[in-house]
Amino acid sequence: KGVGRRWSRDRDRFLARQIEAGDHATGVSAVTRFFRLSMQSLILGLGAWLAIEHLASVGVMFAATFMLGRALQPIEQLVGNWRGVISARSAYLHITDTLAAQPPERELMDLPRPKGKVQFEGVHYGLPNTAKFILRAISFQLAAGEALGVVGPSGAGKSTLMRLLVGVVRPTSGSVRLDGADLHTWASGALGRHIGYLPQDIELFSDTVAANISRFGENADSEVVRAAELAGVHELILRLPQGYNTQIGDGGAAISGGLRQRIGLARAVFGTPSLLVLDEPSSNLDAEGDGALTHCIATLKQLGTTVVIVSHRSATLIGVDRIMLLRDGTIEAIGPRDAVAGKLLPARSPAAAGGPA
Ligand SMILES: Nc1ncnc2c1ncn2[C@@H]1O[C@H](COP(=O)(O)OP(=O)(O)OP(=O)(O)O)[C@@H](O)[C@H]1O
Ligand SMILES: [Mg+2]
């Protein structure tokens, strides 16, 4: 009902504006028409008078009238198409603004495949045009092949930290480094190959399962199967109506939330990245999915991948080496898993630890 009211209000406004615009347009074109016709009549009259006085021939009179008509035509056309001119102008300004806001990507050097060492150095992050920081003074290091669990209350800034870690957003100050090089000195295409990311709100493309896992890479069939096996989702995919060629629908609407999450995990581990970042990977998983996730993390760790996982579930955090507790945008504690978990878990109610996030 509320939506309907809003819609009809906006529609009424739109119609009123349109009528107003129509009135203006009619007025303007009537004026230009009047102007053209009176000029033509005037010239015709003047010519007739000159012809009668034998100062000009009848031919000159007609020629002058025609020429005037031709000369005025472009002006009238300009008035008629003014709306097009205006919208072209605003479109042009829009494009230049957008391009100015996003400077062209510099030609960046292709660095060798990173080992996975991560450094945060005094990172502050705030949204553009706000004074408040979402994250403050974040400094920590991860050795290559280390696994870190990130915990903290809702709104602490965990997802924001993950976005900084994968280079989706830039720190307001400080730097995030992968193998010692600031993330923004990497070419984004190359960085994408080395970092696997499963965001909290998974976005899948309305395409096949295989295309989603390979991120539209070509000739990657064996790699796709490998990634699915790593994520423990290969068998589940084979059971879909068309296996790997199943269309997953708009944003993954045709498959269940749990499967979506596991396909997202397969996409994140595709190509065995040097750094794997998982934001609430188990929020929709059943016990079997939990097991597959734990196994996947352990395997990647063995292959030397650095893993960062945000999770509320202690089951998901079994395989991590260290845990970071984030609160109000700062690191409240970071240390060996058992030490931090020991401080943390008794205070947590069983529902919060086991239930979906
Ligand atoms: N694009 C944004 N616009 C406005 N506020 C934002 C934006 N991104 C993050 N925030 C704010 O930053 C804070 C941290 O958000 P973030 O999503 O990182 O929290 P979180 O720890 O991941 O929470 P959750 O456990 O609920 O996922 C929140 O208060 C949120 O409102
Ligand atoms: Mg989050």
Give a verbal description of the structure.
With 357 residues, the chain is α/β, with parallel strands linked by helices. The chain is 48% helix and 17% strand. The protein folds into 2 domains: 2-101; 118-354, 3-Layer(aba) Sandwich (Rossmann fold), CATH 3.40.50. The strands form 2 sheets. It has a 6-stranded mixed β-sheet, with helices on both faces. β7, α10 (287-302) and β8 (306-310) form a beta-alpha-beta unit. It is elongated. Residues 348-357 have low confidence and may be disordered. Residues 158-159, 200, 279 line the site of magnesium ion.
Low-confidence stretches: 348-357
CATH topology of the largest domain, by name, is Rossmann fold
Report the C-alpha radius of gyration, rounded.
33 Å
CA-based shape: elongated
Helix content: 40-55%
Through-space gap between termini: 31 Å
- The tally of beta strands, per DSSP, is 10
Q: Provide the number of structural domains.
A: 2
Q: Which second-level CATH architecture of the largest domain applies?
A: 3-Layer(aba) Sandwich
What is the succession of H and E elements?
A: HHHEEEHEEHEHHHHEHEEEHH
- The portion of residues forming beta strands comes to 15-25%
Q: What small molecules accompany the polymer chains?
A: adenosine-5'-triphosphate, magnesium ion
By DSSP (H or I, 4+ residues per run), the number of helices equals 12
Mean model confidence by pLDDT: 86
Highest-level CATH class of the largest domain:
Alpha Beta
| Order of neighbouring strands in the sheet with most strands | 6-7-8-3-9-10
Per CATH, the superfamily of the largest domain is: P-loop containing nucleotide triphosphate hydrolases
Major beta sheet, specifics? 6 strands, mixed
Which structural class fits the helix and strand makeup? alpha/beta
